[in-house]
Each structure stands twice: as C-alpha cells, then as structure tokens.
Amino acid sequence: MEAEANSGSPEDSWAFIQRPGEGCRTVPLAGHVGFDSLPDQLVNKSVSQGFCFNILCVGETGLGKSTLMDTLFNTKFEGEPATHTQPGVQLRSNTYDLQESNVGLKLTIVSTVGFGDQINKEDSYKPIVEFIDAQFEAYLQEELKIRRVLHIYHDSRIHACLYFIAPTGHSLKSLDLVTMKKLDSKVNIIPIIAKSDAISKSELTKFKIKITSELVSNGVQIYQFPTDDELVAEINGTMNAHLPFAVIGSTEELKIGNKMMKARQYPWGTVQVENEAHCDFVKLREMLIRINMEDLREQTHSRHYELYRRCKLEEMGFKDTDPDSKPFSLQETYEAKRNEFLGELQKKEEEMRQMFVQRVKEKEAELKEAEKELHEKFDRLKKLHQDEKKKLEDKKKSLDDEMNAFKQRKTAAELLQSQGSQAGGAQTLKRDKEKKNLGFL
Fold first, then answer.
1. 200: exposed, middle or buried (Cβ count in 10 Å: 0-12, 13-18, 19+)
2. What single-letter DSSP state applies at residue 80?
3. What is the DSSP code (8-state) at residue 3?
4. If we measure between CA atoms, which residue out of 10, 16, 14 comes closest to residue 29?
5. Is the pLDDT score of 1 beyond 50?
6. At 193, phi and psi to the nearest 5?
7. CA distance 42 to 39
C-alpha cells in the first residue's frame, strides 16, 4: 500500500517505518482522530466496574494482623479474635465493599487462624498453599468454560501476602523460612515486622539486615516493587531497600499537639503510627495501596497464575510445540490428546476383554475341576454305599440263618420235651397201677 502526501514538502509527507520483525508500519496523522481518549474510556469503564484486591495475612496469632488491616484501610473490619487452641491452621476469608470518592473496591482479607500455635508445625504451610491453589483452580475452571463470564466473576486469587514476622530481634524462625519458600512461587510476598515498637531502633536495624540475609541465603523470592516505570522507579527502588517494613497498627486516636493522630500510648511515651520516624507504616501503605496495587494484581495474573495455569495444562497434556519444536495449536493438541485418549481407551478395553476372557476360562476350569471332584466324590460315596449295603445284606442273611437255626433247635427242643413229658406220664401211670395192684393184695 502506498500513501500520497497532502503537501509537497518532505516534512509533511506521510512516512512509513518498517519495524524489524514486525509486519506493520508507523504513519503520522494529518489531524486529530480521537483514539487518544482510549485511556479515559478505560478509566471510566474500570471505575464503573469497580476493582477487587485480595490480601492474605500470614503470621502467628497475636501479631496484630487484624489491627493492621483496620489501620491500613482506616476502618473497623468485623471479625472474631483468634485463640491459641486451634487444632490446625484454618483460613478465614472475609470480603468487604469499600468506597473512596467514586472508586469502589471489593476487598477480601484472608487470615491464617491458628498458624504457628501447634507443637508440630511441620505441615502448617500446607493449608495456605492448598487455599492459594484452590483460588487459581477456580479461576482456571471459569476461564476454560465455553461460556465465560470473567467480567462479572469475583476474582478470589491472592494479590498480596503480608507475612508478619515476630519482633524477636534475632533471626527468622524455621517455620517462617519454610512457609515463605513454599509460597514465593504462588503469591507476592511482602514481609513485615509486626509490633516493631517491641524492640529498639538499633536492634530493629540489625534485625532487618539479618532477615534480608536469611531470605537471600535460603533462596526466598519476595515481591520487589517495580522500577521499570519512570514515574515510580525512584521511590520504588528506595522502598525496596527498606524491606522488610517495620510496622505498628492502631485504631486508637490520640491528641498530639493540635492534631488527632493514630498512636499507641505507653507509660514511657507515645508511638505515632503515621510518623515515619517511629515505624514504616506509611511506607507500607504507600507501596501496597497508593502506588503498586495494580502491579500486584498484574503480577498475580501474569506471573503466578500463568505458572499455575501452564503447569496444570501441561499435566493435562497440552503443549505449545510438538516433539519437533514446531508450533502446536490448541485444536491440534486437543485432537492429539483425544486420539491418544481413544487409543488408551481401546487398549484398556482390549486388556479388559482379554482379562475377562481369561477369567472366564479360569472360572470354567475351576468349575470343571469342581465338577470332576464332585463326580469322584459321588462315585466314592456310591461305592461306599454299595459296600455298606452289601455288608448289611450279608449281616441280615447271617442273622436270618441264625434265626432259622435257632427256630430249628427250638422246635427240636420242644419236640424232645414233649416226648419226654409223654414218657414220664406213662411211667407214672404204670407205677400207680402197680401200687394199686399191691394194695389189693
């Protein structure tokens, strides 16, 4: 495509600049068009939709997490105080709608109830990691839907993790190091020293140096305020050197001079929350809310969520390139995965069919063997029955023979007895006759 100049001078002519590696050319405009209002349109649309920001507060019970949140947002959030008797770590999430000028903010504060209160703290980080992954998974599932409603979806991904460190003045606890190491690839960690008025300034300075050294030596990646934007590069670079922030929280206002200020009253004096000579609360508020809130949201989406999404999709078998390092479209990946799945399904079906046939054959063999055993047992029992029957018949025959013999002997005995009785009667008659004859004489 060629363009003609509106005037004859080379300065007013349309120029084309071919950028290396890009298929576009830059041309000047002859007059006002209007797309310079796009930033205003974007601002108006964003303001009308509102913003969301999610903060995760990690730290032991009693370090002032709730108080600091109240102080940061200059309000009183409802919540029940945590106790030290929790059997495990529980994450409690509360969402609030805040309004400042014409900007609406849906703020979600997630607290780790019972963190560090158990005797065995080995798995204290697991519920936190699982919660963060669950928010990523919920967003991924919404993103993968055919009909997505991301413009009205409540994004619950954690944008900032305020890690509360106990003001021991010595070094980080092993629980803190392990937990931050497990979280640094999943969330933007901003370490803060809670209740920093519990130690002196000199101890606090040494404590900060010690914490920074331990984080570096253990490879813990904390959130660094961005320095690529010229407008905030200087202040962010300066604030990076102040990490971790030493903060104090208080919702109580005291009259100091002629002003009412948030402060904490002690027998030895007053600690002003918003006095940078007393603590880093103002630095934290500036960095977290007023300057880098959008960068925290962007880092969560472009870095931490993308890492989770990539790993999850790779687990599902999706890839950007084929084995030859050539570009691989999502449709091709889907088709390849589908064909692979169908192949595996057919293979499993064939294996199941063969296994079924094998089991049927084994069962048939078992049944045949059982049938054979039953037949053999039946034959043994039948033979045993026949033998027993023959024995009984032989015994019966023997008994019948004995009975017949007994009857014959009995008959013979009765006959003999009868004959004997007849003979005895005749002799008796003969003697009686002889006696009678003798009596006559």
1. exposed
2. P
3. -
4. 14
5. no
6. -90, 110
7. 5
Say how far apart CA 290 and CA 218 lie, in whole Å. Answer: 31
What distance in Å separates the CA atoms of residue 163 and residue 185, rounded to the nearest whole number? 14
Higher pLDDT pick, 155 / 329: 155
Indicate the pTM of the whole model: 0.71
- What confidence tier does 417 reach under pLDDT thresholds 50, 70, 90? confident
Instruction: Report phi then psi at 176, rounded to 5.
Output: -65, -45
Q: Is the separation of the CB atoms in 98 and 75 below 8 Å?
A: yes
Least confident range from 121-130, 133-142, 294-303, 327-336: namely 327-336
| H or E segment to which residue 90 belongs | strand 90-100
Task: Pick left, alpha or beta for residue 99 (phi over 0 → left; psi -120 to 50 → alpha; otherwise beta).
Answer: beta
DSSP 235-277: HHHHHHTTPSEE------EEEETTEEEEEEEETTEEEETT-TT
Query: Quick check: helix, strand or coil at residue 39?
Result: helix
Helices 174-183, 201-217: crossing angle, 10 deg rounding: 50
Query: DSSP character for 82?
Result: P
What's the longest Cα–Cα distance across the chain?
A: 211
Q: Could you report the per-residue pLDDT of 174-190, keeping only the tens digit for each?
A: 999 999 999 999 999 99
C-alpha 269/C-alpha 275 separation (Å) is 14
Percent of the chain surpassing pLDDT 70: 91
Burial 238-255 (b: 16+ CB within 10 A, else e): ebeeebbbbbbbbeeeee
Which residues lie below 8 Å from residue 133, measured CB to CB, with a gap of 6+? 186, 308
Tokens representing 270?
């007053």
